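User: Okay, second chain of the day. Same drill as before: sequence in, C-alpha cells out.
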Amino acid sequence: MVQVCLNGARGAGDGAAVPLSPGSMAASAVEAVAAGASDIHVHPKSPCGHDTLSPKAVTPTIEAIRARVGVPVGVTTGAWAEPDPAARVARVRSWTVLPDHASVNWHEPGAEELAAALIDRGIGVEAGIWSGTEGAARFAVSPLGPRVLRVLAEVVDTSADTAEDSAHALLTDLGGAHGRPVLLHGMEGGTWPVLRLAGRLGLATRIGLEDTLLLPDGERAVSNGQLVAEGLLQHRLGREPRPS
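Assistant: Same drill. C-alpha cells below.
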C-alpha cells in the first residue's frame, strides 16, 4: 500500500502545489489516486490555513474528497492542531462526518484517551510512532495496541545520510508492533531513502507534499500525483535485488 499525505502542516508559504482548501485537497486526491495511491491522509485547515480538528473543517474536507475518490480517507489529530488533550478528545466526539481513520501520535500527552475515543466511534487508529521519542515504548505496553488499524513508523530524522539507520532502529524498537501492519515513511531529506527501505522490507509506505516537496533528483514536485507516481517506482526499485 502507498498512502498519499496531501498537505501536512504546510501552508501557503510552501508553494501553490500544497492543497489547503477542501476543493484543492479533493482535486489533489484525484490525481494521487489516479497515480496509484490507495489511501489518503490529510490535514483539514482553518480559513487562515492552520491545521484544525474542528468539525467545521473536518466535515467539508472529508466530504469533498469522498465525492471525488473511493479510497479510505484519514485525518491528523496532532497536538499542534489542538494542544489541550481533553479538547482533542472533545473535538473527536463532536465530528459529525467521520473519517475512515485518524493518526494518533503515541508520544503526545493524552494519546491513549484520544485513541480510545476514536475506536469508540468506529474510526480506525493509525498509531504514529516517531523515531527519537518514547512512542514505541509507550505503544509496547498499550492495551489498545492490538486494536489499532496500523502502525505508522515515522522517521523524523531528516538526513538522507542517517535516516535509513534511524528507520532500522525504530523498527527494532517497535518489535512485533502488537501484530499490526506497519507503514514506514520518512520526512524531508529522509523521505526517499526510507521509502526505498520500505520497499526492500515489503512494508507499506506513504508519500506526498506533507513529507517532501522534492523529487529524488532534488527537483521540486509539481503535485501529489507526481510524488505518488515516483514513490511507487522507488518502492518497487527498493524490492529489486541489489547487485552483488
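The beta strands are 2-5, 39-42, 73-76, 101-105, 124-130, 150-154, 182-185, 205-207.

User: Thanks, on to the next one.
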